[in-house]
User: Fold these one by one.
Assistant:
Number 1:
Amino acid sequence: MEDRSEVIQVRCDKLPAPPRTRLQVWFIRVCSSIVVWTCLFQIVVVGELWHPHLLYKITNRISQITQLPLRVEVAVQSPPSLPPARNYTSNGFLRVSCNGGLNQMRAAICDMVTVARFLNLTLVVPELDKASFWADPSNFEDIFDVKHFIESLRDEVRIVRRLPKKFHRKYGIKPLEMPPISWSNEKYYMQQILPLFSKHKVLHFNKTDARMANNGLPLDLQKLRCRVNFQALKFTSQIETLGYKLIRMLQEKGPFVALHLRYEMDMLAFSGCTHGCSKEESEELKQMRYAYPWWRDKEIDSELKRSQGLCPLTPEETILVLKALGFDKDTQIYIAAGEIYGGEGRLAALRSAFPRIVKKEKLLAPEELQQFQNHSSQMAALDFMVSVASNTFIPTYDGNMAKLVEGHRRYLGFKKTILLDRKRLVELLDIHHNGTLPWKEFADSVQSAHERRMGQPTRRKVIMDKPKEEDYFYANPQECLCEETSCDDLLSPGNSSGKG
């Protein structure tokens, strides 16, 4: 009997509850909504008594939420305004293969856009060097925002991502490959390059470094070179995000110096600068130089080059120069460079003198840098961003990065850039080391030698028929540093390049 009652009870428990009517469900929802909105209204009214802007913020946020589909539709209908596309008949396609490191290629891209502009050509997105010492597989779009590059220059030159198929070799089109003559002006391109397009619809420049003159070009061409450099060549979002993170981390700890310490193995090997190296290290660097047939200078007198100011400072020399310039041990220093020859051991003395030395590899987690590993140009882009943003930039050698960062900092308001006079410094360092120049006199002499080498407004040094010895355009693009066509007020007669 008990078993039967238990079965009846279980069956009763399993019976479903009587379903609610639609009217009941509707009534419950309406009541709930009224309660919620009443509470919200009371909160807003009370809050408004204490914070007059609260109502505006809340109602504005509600408006944004309720109108979200409409706002998205408006955004789709109103894209960011682009400059009007320039309408011209193209004389042909220009392909370019840039050579060198990141900043050498960057300057070349600016030049090639300018060439395409005044020759009325269609430029194919530049190809980046993959066969250099660094063997970086990066393409243009891996480093620069290709869409921004194309669209931001559409009022000047037509740029396409790739050559149209009908101009490929398999269709019988053979491009003319050649390197343009170095340091050429617009007359060379107009008179010797443009006529080639009557026969060849595609021209391929297989070398692009330093193919335009520093000086003597029309003002509009010089300004276009600047526009490409400072506005069109924008790094990818991945590079910018990490670069800005580095900058933010450094700025949160106070002002910082970006030290471009050019003491990498390839730099020392190819320059032949071995001052301060052991015999074994000097031999290793020499063997590396001989391992590359394309490097013509095999036997190099290191001490002679150093005395001429043609070698980067060693880390040990850099310590004395920084101290002489007034930087103390509390100075925050970011090392903008690749792997230093000799590793952390070679940096030990520098770290001891300036304990607040940091590198991107120490500031960022390994997984953050993983996507950039084995991509030297992308790593250099991070250093470029930090160097441009630094409170003070100090390059120990005037390579391409040093020159382009210098020019960028001038463009941003002549930010402090200490351009080391290495020839004078070597003289002072040697005299100080042999004990005949006390520290006080050494420091005074170093500071005196650099009073006019701080990145302040100066005129480019022009040397007729010796463009390699002139001041580099991208280090001091004086035509782009003021609004007027003449910078005479900014570049007074007393100002001239202190480099030399």
Number 2:
Amino acid sequence: MQRTSVRRGLITTAALGLALTSAPAVAHAHHTPNTNAPVKVTLTVQGPDGLLFKGKIRTKGHDVTTATGGTHRCDGTNGGAQPTAVPTPTAALDDAARKRHFTWDGTWYASFDDYSVDTIKNVGGGGVAYWNISVNGTSTPVGGCQFKLKAGDKVAFTWTAF
């Protein structure tokens, strides 16, 4: 009786081993696409007296530093808007300013987890206007650090009177 138990155990173990070695492999490496790959967009900055900047800019989401607002992430994950980092309008403005040597400033609002763009090339609203952000002709429904840009998008910061 003991031999029968041992034999059954060996047969079961051998059968299980064969089943496992002959089963197709189902574990595959999971590849997550890079959602924050740089994209090329057209950026336009329209002030009250005309065009302040227009050009193509390569951008991705990144930390942004302003004189007034300090350093904060600006990669689409702000306010839980996107699950992973993505290129954003404010990051595009920041990249253009650094690469084309102009200034911009913004106030950081922790309650919105985003910047308010206050000045671009020393042009501010002064309480009578604000910098509206639009993508492909439509105002963004969220802040400039929350909106996901795609390659070829047309991003505009437009001085807009109240």
Number 3:
Amino acid sequence: MPVREYNSISPSVAERCYIDESSVLVGEITIGADSSVWPLVAARGDVNYIKVGARTNIQDGSVLHVTRKSSGNPDGNPLIIGDDVTIGHKCMLHGCTLGNRILVGMGAIVMDGAVVEDDVFIGAGTLVPPNKRLESGYLYVGNPMMKKRPLKESEQAFLKISADNYVRLKDEYLAQI
């Protein structure tokens, strides 16, 4: 697996995960069971930690990083991603917290200190500025983001379906190894 130690700390990957050989995971990173990290993902848990929950998928070309601890921000900002989360292609997640059953659309950016509650859609190309809170059950779009509307029942159901689809796909990839 493409994992690298930093300051004597190595990434920890749970059972039944798929980590593509072209991705890079460095430092204090924890990946939960049945999760997947796809081609060309860069994740650096060097100046703080990254925690990815179970059944979560990080798609191609995404970048995951954290905020350093400082006198103005003693804890810094780790990157915390919950369970059943879909991170679309080429997303940037930096020192933010994402709850469970979230879909982050392709090319979206979620910045330091932002908190995304459970059951949220973030549209493709959306910019979530630092320290914003995205309320559960809504679609957010735009640059900068704005609350567009409540999620439809079918959209809320799709959040779990999307995660389940990627669990099946990673199982197919693991069967070929």
